[in-house]
Inverse folding.
């Protein structure tokens, strides 16, 4: 048997100095590619019977969640544990915040306990950016309001790249509530940087024309664009963020924008279907579509773990080559 | 790369050293335990493949080759601004109860091998782990000793010993490079 030689990486333009992951808007194409490459090689660790490597031994990863989350928080915790870091959850409802402590004071207290990384989810856009300016720990944005959710964007990119073997030149549809979706924003930045054509589709109240400024195409009739798509990412209606009144009824939304088998049949047979979850079966997509052959929804969850391991590893900055190869 | 100050071994002698390693491994091997080679990325892997090729001829059975990436196991990494190169561990066989021979290009402090042993043992419990290196340059910082050695060289602690081997390099051989001023950490 023979093991293929590794592809020669292009010489990177600047020293690697990624300290925080705040959004895909701030990342270069090379940085995004480096994260995806690292995540692909982390997939192997999750397939071992002993799913753990000592890369982050002795480091502390704090989860600061000011909004409900189960899967993202669990995914980050598991990712940290697979790298042998210690993890600690901090939940806003039982904290001193309810006693009047400010957000920054809370973070500074956690920093004083030795947090190397803080994974932050907050309803206010820019909250992780604010922390990055006030504490010395690495900050990972796990979702800030309707702004960005970079690890979700990265795991969508990884799933597309693994399934389609490329991203450049693909046409990717983002369907649903683009206005209130941080997942959409991270997808748009990542996909356009890597050379995909992005079509945003939904009712005009949720997909305003001004989104074209982000380098996307805006469409309001899903049936008209289905045949052009290589990938469709079906976003959840953000009932908690939408003020209401953006569409007459859930049933009507589902009629025009729900992903049904009839719509899948309009598209190419190799259409890749993604959904960030949690999915509302029967609203954004029908059960037969969610569980059908085009769906990669559960692979997204697996890839999410690999992406979060990669990000935690890469923010630590410690990944020199063997000393003999560095001349040591 | 930097101009080599000394050629320690040319391409023909490099091949002879690989043959010698295969001879040493073959004569020490007991046929009742499965023999498997694992190269340490990057240059340990092509060396392991060439040894395995020669072993296959000598022993009459195919000797599988795997690869370990030890980046996640090192204890002495610093944030040096280098870009990440994680090539991944790829061991397509069961290490459980096998005789594993770790293969690397240069043996120096022993820290790489310490990390590689941990990486291999995370995959299962081998019957034994042995170490084959193309060049032993001395200077150990851990109690690690090679079982099979291609060549031994004596160089100053500040020197760099670099192995060039296909497909990573065109000009095969073993080279000594005197380091510019930058002190070793």
């Amino acid at each position: 048997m023979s093991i293929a030689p590794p592809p020669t990486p292009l010489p990177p333009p600047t020293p690697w100095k990624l300290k925080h992951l705040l959004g895909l808007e701030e990342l270069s194409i090379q940085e995004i590619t480096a994260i995806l490459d690292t995540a692909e090689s982390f997939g192997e660790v999750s397939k071992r019977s002993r799913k753990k490597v000592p890369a982050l031994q002795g480091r502390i990863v704090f989860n600061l969640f000011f909004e409900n989350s189960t899967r993202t928080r669990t995914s980050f915790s598991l990712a940290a544990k697979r790298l042998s870091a210690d993890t600690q959850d901090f939940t806003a409802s039982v904290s001193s915040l309810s006693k009047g402590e400010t957000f920054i004071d809370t973070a500074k207290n956690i920093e004083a306990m030795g947090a190397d990384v803080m994974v932050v989810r907050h309803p206010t856009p820019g909250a992780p950016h604010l922390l990055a300016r006030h504490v010395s720990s690495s900050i990972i944005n796990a979702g800030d309001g309707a702004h960005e959710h970079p690890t979700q964007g990265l795991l969508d990119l990884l799933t597309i790249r693994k399934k389609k073997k490329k991203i450049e030149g693909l046409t990717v549809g983002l369907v649903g509530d683009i206005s209130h979706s941080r997942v959409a924003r991270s997808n748009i930045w990542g996909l356009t940087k890597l050379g995909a054509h992005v079509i945003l589709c939904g009712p005009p109240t949720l997909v305003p024309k001004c989104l074209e400024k982000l380098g996307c195409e805006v469409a309001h009739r899903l049936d008209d664009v289905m045949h052009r798509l290589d990938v469709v990412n079906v976003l959840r209606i953000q009932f908690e963020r939408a003020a209401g009144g953006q569409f007459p009824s859930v049933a009507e939304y589902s009629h025009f924008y729900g992903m049904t088998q009839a719509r899948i049949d309009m598209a190419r047979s190799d259409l890749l279907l993604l959904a960030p979850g949690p999915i509302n079966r029967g609203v954004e997509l029908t059960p037969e579509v969610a569980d059908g052959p085009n769906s990669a929804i559960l692979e997204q969850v697996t890839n999410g773990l690999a992406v979060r391991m990669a990000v935690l590893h890469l923010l630590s900055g410690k990944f020199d080559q063997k000393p003999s190869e560095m001349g040591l | 790369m930097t101009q080599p100050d000394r050629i320690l071994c040319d391409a023909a002698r490099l091949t002879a050293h690989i043959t010698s390693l295969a001879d040493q491994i073959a004569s020490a091997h007991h046929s009742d335990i499965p023999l498997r080679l694992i190269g340490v990325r990057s240059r340990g892997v092509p060396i392991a493949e060439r040894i395995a090729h020669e072993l296959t001829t000598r022993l009459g059975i195919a000797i599988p080759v795997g690869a370990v990436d030890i980046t996640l196991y090192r204890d002495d990494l610093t944030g040096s601004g280098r870009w990440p190169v994680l090539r991944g561990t790829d061991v397509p066989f069961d290490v459980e109860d096998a005789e594993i021979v770790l293969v690397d290009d240069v043996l120096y402090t022993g820290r790489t091998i310490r990390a590689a042993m941990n990486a291999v043992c995370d995959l299962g419990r081998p019957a034994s782990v042995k170490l084959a290196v193309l060049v032993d340059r001395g200077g150990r910082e851990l109690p690690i000793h090679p079982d099979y050695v291609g060549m031994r060289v004596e160089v100053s602690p500040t020197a760099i010993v670099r192995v060039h081997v296909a497909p990573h390099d065109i000009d095969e051989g073993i080279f000594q490079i005197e380091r510019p001023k930058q002190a070793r950490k």
In short: Residues 321-328 of chain A have pLDDT under 50 and may be disordered. The CA atoms of residues 11 and 30 of chain A lie 10 Å apart. The interface with chain B takes residues 1-3, 5-6, 9, 12, 15-17, 30, 34, 37-38, 40-42, 44-45, 48-50, 52-55, 83, 313-314, 316-328 of chain A (CB under 8 Å).
